[in-house]
């Protein structure tokens, strides 16, 4: 019993030292964003346990004043859900300079599978529409815990099927549809690509998954050391997976890290921060993609925490992160 107690003690000491050291490695310029968040939302997301109230607070902080752009036409559509599920809201961003056929970006918002909306993605969707002269399609998938798996991923897949079938009407080149998402949206982007591959429709030319949420097991080193960074720590992640799975066992669509076969997926771009809980599961997934013959670009950014580039976009680290993404998207959409 003494030996076992010593092992348990050492494990706790190790995890504690990991947490301390990972916090010390956060980029000082980017850390200003964490400090601002802690003032706006003391105690982090879990400090608001009731999900409806949490969503309202997050909306107020992050995207309550979303606006349009004079050079982008914004159109909403209600499209059929998968397997007689409720209709899905799709928002399309078309630059006024669009040609008859343009590259398409299918965008899936983040939010841990339980918060967020197309409004959260709207500034980025407008930016991409203008920067790449692309038609951006954003999907409003159902959220957990009210709508656990498979509702979110099935909504995302239904949305991209509708997009591909209506490509001509949307002014999208069906040969140049990319899937894009960050965090939970990154995990759903990978799951959508897996589903599209398995169902042989639609053709996806490229996938960009930013620090994707892909493994419900929480057994990696990074999932144990990121406990008090202040955004998407271990407790928040475990809560989100519990809500998302709703008591079900995760398969490869729910948690793409569990997908047995990654062959045949589209060329991929992934990135993650050094101080991100998803670091190690993303590193392993990117490695598996490469070993499966999938062309893959992958970045680990020293000093970056989860979504740090969104909190302090003016930081030098954030600029480097976005430059790499813009470059990869430009090559993929114009290839």
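^ Assign residues to that structure.
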């Amino acid at each position: 019993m003494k030996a076992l107690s010593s092992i348990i003690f050492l494990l706790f000491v190790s995890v504690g030292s990991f947490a301390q050291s990972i916090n010390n490695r956060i980029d000082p310029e980017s850390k200003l964003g964490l400090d601002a968040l802690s003032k706006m939302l003391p105690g982090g997301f879990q400090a608001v346990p009731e999900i409806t109230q949490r969503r309202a607070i997050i909306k107020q902080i992050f995207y309550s004043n979303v606006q349009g752009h004079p050079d982008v036409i914004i159109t909403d559509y209600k499209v059929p859900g998968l397997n007689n599920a409720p209709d899905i809201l799709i928002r399309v961003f078309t630059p006024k300079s669009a040609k008859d056929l343009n590259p398409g970006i299918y965008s899936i918002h983040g939010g841990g599978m339980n918060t967020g909306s197309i409004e959260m993605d709207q500034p980025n969707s407008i930016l991409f529409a203008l920067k790449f002269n692309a038609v951006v399609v954003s999907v409003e998938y159902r959220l957990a815990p009210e709508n656990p798996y498979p509702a979110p991923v099935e909504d995302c897949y239904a949305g991209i099927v509708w997009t591909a079938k209506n490509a001509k009407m949307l002014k999208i080149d069906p040969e140049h549809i990319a899937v894009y998402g960050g965090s939970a949206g990154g995990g759903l982007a990978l799951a959508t690509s897996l589903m599209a591959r398995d169902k042989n429709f639609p053709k996806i030319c490229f996938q960009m998954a930013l620090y994707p949420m892909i493994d419900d097991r929480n057994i990696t080193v990074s999932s144990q050391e990121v406990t008090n960074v202040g955004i998407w720590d271990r407790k928040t992640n475990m809560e989100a997976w519990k809500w998302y799975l709703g008591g079900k066992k995760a398969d490869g669509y729910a948690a793409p890290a569990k997908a047995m076969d990654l062959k045949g997926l589209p060329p991929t771009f992934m990135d993650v921060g050094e101080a991100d809980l998803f670091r190690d599961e993303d590193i392993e997934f990117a490695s598996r993609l490469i070993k499966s013959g999938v062309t893959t670009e992958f970045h680990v950014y020293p000093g970056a925490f989860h979504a740090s580039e969104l909190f302090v976009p003016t930081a030098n680290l954030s600029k480097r992160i976005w430059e790499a993404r813009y470059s990869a998207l430009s090559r993929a959409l114009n290839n």
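The beta strands are 72-79, 88-95, 102-108, 135-140, 172-182, 206-210, 268-275, 296-305.
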